[in-house]
Amino acid sequence: MTPAPIQTLPLSASWQFHDDRSTLVLEPHARPAMPVSNDDQVVHLCFQAGTDELAKILAVFEIPSEAVRERHWAVIRQGVAVKVEQHSEFVSIMLRRSADDAEGKLGEFLRDLTTIEHVKTICLTRVLLHSPKSTGFKELTFGSRIMGGHICTDLEVRSTLFPDEHGFITFVVKAPAAPSEQLGRRIQRLLEVETYRNMCLLGLPLARRTGEKLRRFEMELGTIMSAMNSEAKELDDEAHFERLSTLMQEAHAETAGCRYRFAASLAYNEIVQQRLDSLEEEKLGELQTVTGFVRSRLNPGVSTIQSVVRRQQVLIDDLNQALSLLRTRIDLSLNRDNQFLLKSMDARHRQQVVIAQTVEGLSAVAISYYLVGLVSYMAASLTGVLPDWLSPAIIIGISVPVIFLGVYTFLHTMRKRWESDLLKKSSP
After folding, report:
1. pTM
2. Cα 336 to the chain's mean position, in Å?
3. Is 185 exposed, middle or buried (0-12, 13-18, 19+ CB in 10 A)?
4. Are strands 91-97 and 120-130 parallel, antiparallel or unpaired?
5. Higher model confidence: residue 171 or residue 1?
6. CATH code assigned to 33-191
7. Could you say which of 47, 194, 270, 344 is the most buried, measured as most Cβ atoms within 10 Å of its Cβ?
8. In degrees to the nearest 10, what's the CA dihedral of 263, 267, 273, 278?
9. Which of 168-177, 340-349, 370-379, 396-405 has the highest mean pLDDT?
10. Domain range 203-339, CATH class
11. How many CB atoms lie within 10 A of CB 342?
């Protein structure tokens, strides 16, 4: 049976790719391991450097400054293999010198790197590779505490995990003859353990300093809560609210200032644990394994960072709860004050009504008295005109209740109208 012919696929130019597709494709192939053999010397450096400093680092290895936008560079300069990688917050440099290469070039590169200003060194690591039959372990400082074991099945590693007089931590590795790419991947995992361990522990000094500040915040919060329980004055509540608000601002500022560093440390810790697992280290004799030593020193530091992160969150939650309780207390106090004020205003209004009614009655009497006086004058002037049975006294007596009732009704009506107008004007 004749196989079906292979169909021609559409040209790639006809596809509309996502803007970040190139990043997605290249990321799995980024930062490949440097091939090494079992007689090489590898130096690994880790720096914090800005863009200008990175350009100077690349210039040491004659890499064009235009390439600073990239994240990975690999070149060979005078027998020394160079790999420079730009990570999220640090730059790593890996140098490999073979046994038959010129002696001085690696040291010259290192001296040139030390002259670059504003570069903060995080870790310096050296790996000395030997064949299984060599006596390379004698290169470690005599009398120092040595850790080691079998990693990746057939590699034997030793290290003091303590920097020498030049600041380098040295790993001596005995490795059988193996493909250089495979050995390079194993050595890279070992170097990444040391690099990410240091990056992880960058958060520990900050965690200790932050822990002291948290202690002060927690004590101040406890003092305020105790004062809130023992005092019930409105003025004290307002003062406590101000103190709590200030404390909340300081706590939020402190948490925001630490958030990135702590999150990065916890992320680096996960990478370290993954790399340690991938080493598959087995115990060798009475030596403590590198994996066991790193974890025994790293895990407490990570626990400290995690503890500070939890304390920060608990402090903010407690402050929010305290502010909520105090706000409720202040609202209740304001409601009581408002009720008292309303009752006082109601009582004052009632007094004003009573006074107004009293004044209204007195005014009616005064006006009626005046009008009755006028009527009496009019009645007296009609003495000869009026019939005998209708005397001025009778006229005055009849006019008194009529005049008073009319005056009182008029004043009462006017007062009601004024009050109604005032209510309409005062209502929204």
Report:
1. 0.75
2. 39
3. middle
4. unpaired
5. 171
6. 3.30.70.1150
7. 194
8. -170
9. 168-177
10. mainly alpha
11. 10
